[in-house]
């Protein structure tokens, strides 16, 4: 099968998200200028540089009370900071609850039954008990073709690691099983890990 996206795929559901899988989930916390907290998962997320450490996430929609964008990007544009919380399998229901399209004044931490704790290097909340959290300072927001497609880049200014996820000096993902996004309504979880040495090592 071959199709041009501009012509449509002719399938019952768009296959695009199912092709780029699994995708890590950035559970993005932000804070509005009025001090209210926001939390939302984004699967167009990844690390993009080592030195200094940098991450990105893309927002691809808007909501009625945030014209042209969503709460996360609106808050980040106003404050210049955000936090990326890593999603453990055991937190899947809370993550899903926080994805609801709620009014901007609703605190998704409370809505999802999560506890917000303050970050150390930025004025933002993070999720208590998350396996890891990356405190970020916004570096730029890039507007992409299409309606409300925007990418936020951030420099990581502080990193929280849950102590029980460290084994022999290594951050061991098998201690918490990261959740990842697939296509449609599907997710997967990391339980099996193997290593490969690079040819030039």
Automatic annotation (TrEMBL):
SUPFAM superfamilies in alphabetical order: FMN-binding split barrel
Residues covered by the Flavin reductase like domain: 18-173
InterPro entries (alphabetical): Flavin_Rdtase-like_dom, Split_barrel_FMN-bd
Domain of life assignment: Bacteria
Coiled coil: none
PANTHER family (UniProt xref): BLR2425 PROTEIN (PTHR43812), FLAVIN REDUCTASE LIKE DOMAIN-CONTAINING PROTEIN (PTHR43812:SF2)
The protein's name: Flavin reductase family protein
Organism: Pseudophaeobacter arcticus
């Amino acid at each position: 099968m071959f199709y041009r996206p501009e012509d449509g795929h002719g399938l019952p559901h768009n296959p695009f998200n199912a092709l780029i899988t699994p995708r890590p989930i950035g559970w993005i916390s932000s804070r509005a200028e009025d001090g209210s907290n926001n939390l939302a998962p984004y699967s167009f997320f990844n690390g993009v540089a080592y030195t200094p450490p940098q991450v990105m996430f893309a927002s691809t929609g808007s909501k009625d009370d945030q014209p042209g964008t969503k709460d996360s990007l609106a808050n980040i544009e106003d404050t210049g900071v955000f936090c990326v919380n890593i999603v453990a399998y055991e937190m899947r229901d809370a993550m899903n609850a926080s994805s609801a399209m709620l009014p901007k004044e609703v605190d998704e931490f409370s809505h999802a039954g999560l506890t917000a704790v303050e970050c150390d290097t930025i004025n933002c909340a993070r999720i208590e008990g998350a396996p890891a959290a990356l405190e970020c300072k916004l570096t730029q927001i890039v507007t992409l073709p299409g309606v409300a497609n925007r990418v936020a880049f951030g420099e990581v200014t502080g990193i929280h690691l849950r102590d029980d996820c460290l084994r022999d000096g290594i951050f061991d993902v098998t201690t918490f099983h990261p959740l990842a996004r697939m296509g449609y309504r599907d997710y997967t979880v990391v339980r099996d890990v193997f290593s490969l040495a690079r040819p030039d090592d």
